Amino acid sequence: MITSELPVLQDSSNEGGVADTMSLSMSVSELEDPMDPKGKKKRGRPGKPPAPNKKPRKTPAEKVAGGARGRKANGIPQTNGEGGEPVTLFEVVKMGKSAMQSVVDDWIESYKQDRDIALLDLINFFIQCSGCKGTVRIEMFRNMQNAEIIRKMTEEFDEDSGDYPLTMPGPLWKKFRYNFCEFIGVLIRQCQYSIIYDEYLMDTVISLLTGLSDSQVRAFRHTSTLAAMKLMTALVNVALNLSIHQDNTQRQYEAERNKMAGKRANEKLELLLQKRKELQENQDEIENMMNSIFKGIFVHRYRDAIAEIRAICIEEIGVWMKMYSDAFLNDSYLKYVGWTLHDRQGEVRLKCLKALQNLYTNRELFPKLELFTNRFKDRIVSMTLDKEYDVAVEAIRLVTLILQGSEDALSNEDCENVYHLVYSAHRPVAVAAGEFLHRKLFSRHDPQAEEALAKRRGRSSPNGNLIRMLVLFFLESELHEHAAYLVDSLWESSQELLKDWECMTELLLEEPVQGEEVLSDRQESALIELMVCTIRQAAEAHPPVGRGTGKRVLTAKERKTQIDDKNKLTEHFIMALPMLLSKYQADSEKVANLLQIPMFFDLDVYSAGRMEKHLDALLKQIRLVVEKHIESDVLEACSKTYSILCSEEYTIMNRVDIARSQLIDEMTDRFTHCVEDLLQEGEEADDDDIYNVLSTLKRLTAFHNAHDLTRWDLFGSCYRLLKAGIEQGSMPEQIAVQALQCSHYSILWQLVKMTEGAPSKDDLLALRRVVKSFLAVCQQCLSNVNTPVKEQAFMLLCDLLMIFSHQLMSGGREGLEPLVFNPDSTLQNELLSFILDHYYNDYGDIIKETLSKTRQSDKILCAKTLILSLQQLFNELLQDQGPTLDRTSSHVSGIKELARRFALTFGLDQIKTREAVATLHKDGIEFAFKYQNPRGAEFPPPNLAFLEVLSEFSSKLLRQDKKTVHSYLEKFMSESMSERREDVWLPLISYRNSLLTGGDDGDRLSVTSGASSKTSSVRSKKGRTPVHKSKRIEEESVDASWLRGNDTLQTPGALATPQLTSTVLRENPRQAADTHLPDHDSEPGSENDYMQMSWLGQQKIEDSRKDRTAMNYMKARNQTVRQTVRGLMEDDAEPIFEDVMMSSRGQLEDMNEEFEDTMVIDLPPSRNRRERAELRPDFFDSAAMIEDESVRRKTHTHTHALRHTA
């Protein structure tokens, strides 16, 4: 072993200023290169402590506070000289005010003076970092075994709180976690050349951490596992450095040995041999330490019941494999990551994927990952569909890295599983899939060759083939046809390709050159759709609808990119769009897409760039499109384009307005003449006359939607058509539908003028006459024989009655009162009849959706509405049949069936609907006993039979709430009622039975304790907690959380068992509470909360007050303390880690290797020292996996025996 002349090992007794020099050099002493052979000392445990005249260094805390750091004499904290608070190593690390290296150097100095006291300080550091208030004293350290110390510290835990530093919220504790990990890393780094080889420090620390990690207390297990994993990481770094030194020493030795005999220095050869031997000894020591941590801690804790502990283990093993791949990147360690890919918690699966990403990023490591890839590739690909979106994103990124490393690693089926995710509604998943798709299909493998080929073909862009491939991919995506989603998914990875609009227009406008295939009609349509989507994405700079939570504020860089892209696309398509419209003007689908492009223009470019001629060309093409097409989507696109170009903020508005007015004038004149001809010919009109009216009316209706055409008075012509159709009964349905719609637009535009100006009374009366006449026409159309006409009339009636209702006068518009319309009873009945006739089949779905929306708004009011509707039906039945109901009749059965269906609407989550269901029962009980029987108290109340209906909702009550409701029912019952068994009392009997089922006292648990006496007994060491017991624990804990969540006082009663810090009895209730607790803004326990206390909460408080007198405080307190210690040390021993393998048991049944065969860390030999004797076995093969039972063994000892000095 290496022991060079290091100041840390020399006598450090100095006088005067020498001590300061020693303190300054302390941080460097342990880091000096140990290769210097001078003054070597034997490795071993330190001898006697230094002489007492040694002057200790000042600690970081002393430097900050200006006093001496509180030391621990015999384990007792000492205050500084100024009488301040005790300053422990834990507090120094927690505050983080001093450099960690200085803190560690101070501890090393104290260790050299008295290693027992220093180690005691370190032990208490780990204990306090776990949140334990206890202190290990020097006599405990010297005379007690680890297990005894840990058991003693368990009893010192704060039983009123389950929090500990690693789980506490806030920036201070987040920083503490970082400081804690840094302290361990710096400690090993500073001690790596001497102290860690003294066979005392590391033995003690590893033994302590192994014991703590085996504890049933979550805080101990969590903190010690984190410390052990960070300790292991630091040791791996030390081992890596040793390996490098060994290689360097070997090279020096061989170089010296190969010299000629006369020039060879034998002394140097001896020194190098000695140095190599010491390095090998050190490496063996490090291997032993790492084996102790790995076998004693990792192999148990990577399967811990707590997800965060498992995540720590997987995260750190990933660091080891990346840091020292020669030693750890093999099947022996990769299998743990592979198995944990099946973990049930998303955060653990996420750590696995990120650990693997760090490995697959390095191309040089791919050969070592080949077997792992083959074994677990299917699982990784399947995780791209993980229910946790974060996990799915990282899985896709990992698959992308695998693809980059080896094209052959993924099959076509694997790739297709990722391809379709570009259409995912979750944008991060889609973007990750877009990156994969770009790497697989759209990345140019030889850009220079492709550019040369494009030049030979006369193309300005080399992306032609890639764009063709994009079109083909889009067309072959049979599951989706959302071009906007595809473009958004590829936007971050393929932006250069997607913005190559010149190449796209070349493919659309120019004839294919030699060697290029002609785009089919379907491919041209797809390319135009994709091109329009890329234009929208560039101009709007935000994802399409359905992706993301809304528009976010763009950064300055993003805003500049958006402006540049908008200018670029405007300058290009101002010239290209008229040509595209000219080529495809006969194709409605292509034209409708192309006409969306102008809405993304920067219209100032027309005037600023003197491009008015291109504007005229565009207007000419739009006019031709309007004249050629009558499809609604094409006409609406033309209308919208005119509306955008006519914006008053642009100078081109006058030019566009003139073109639009000319077009409307021509269409209006044509429409007027065609209407006259049609009305004159009447029933003798031919198809040409009908077509002329319909085509012109469709164009005018589309334009009237976006443009104010009231000055052309289209309402008059449309009204004449409608009246003629009603009188003659022979108007074509399409003309009637379009006339109704056009008249509707005309009325709305007139209303807009009224609201924007100051209308006269005559104007208001004129509009009222128009609206009244149109409503009458729509009402008459409800009886039309043509369904489209009736549906259109119904929709317009509903819209206009809403628009011209009393809300029209809101916002200071009282002057519009003459325009308010209220439907008379005849119109209301006709609208209702229309709904029943046309939407009866969908009525159930409508009511379900209405109930769903109502419940989302207010669950309690929704429940009150349901019970009220049932009460109304019951009252109607009483009026029909009299007080003596036939409970077997179909009418009663119908009400019960409706109640059963209402109960189903509450769903399966009883926690969310708890208060609503309880309120429903309360109102139902009050209704049942609302009236007394006039014949006397011995006869049942008239509404008592309603309890049979109410019993349909009993299954929706939580078990503990059934007793509360039953107690409320008993308040309305007399003693004689409970004894009656006649048939007329059967509703009461059946309802009581439905409440008592599962709600008897024997099965109830304490509301506040979170555990029953049944579950406090010691559980079997060979299995999980029984299912029925675990369910009780969860229900009771939810009960308690519900009461707190509803701002009620905690139920008094038997003294509550304090919260335990062990896993099962505290973790499951906490998880349930986190899942189901409703959010409240008010502070619990406030007066306002008490006034607004829920009925169910009040009932529970009243019931608990009745039981308060039976409490025996001292007896319960003593029992509580005993249960606490027993729960900490025994109850949760098994579920914590013995039976919590996260992957399914079926996947681990074939594990049959022992620890010694797979888990012994064997650092690789140096490059020139030795060769590996044989290859390791395939640890992914089923015959070579670890047997499940062997993994379950607890490891209470490690390789080195614990050595305590008395």
TrEMBL record:
Its main location: nucleus. It comes from the Eukaryota. It is found in: Nucleus; Chromosome; Chromosome, Centromere. The keyword Calcium does not apply. Keywords: Cell cycle, Cell division, Chromosome, Chromosome partition, Coiled coil, Nucleus. Residues 1019-1031 have a biased composition (Basic residues). GO terms for molecular function: chromatin binding. One of its GO terms (cellular component) is cohesin complex. GO terms for biological process: cell division; chromosome segregation; sister chromatid cohesion. Component of cohesin complex, a complex required for the cohesion of sister chromatids after DNA replication. The cohesin complex apparently forms a large proteinaceous ring within which sister chromatids can be trapped. At anaphase, the complex is cleaved and dissociates from chromatin, allowing sister chromatids to segregate. Part of the cohesin complex which is composed of a heterodimer between a SMC1 protein (SMC1A or SMC1B) and SMC3, which are attached via their hinge domain, and RAD21 which link them at their heads, and one STAG protein. This is Cohesin subunit SA. It comes from Esox lucius.
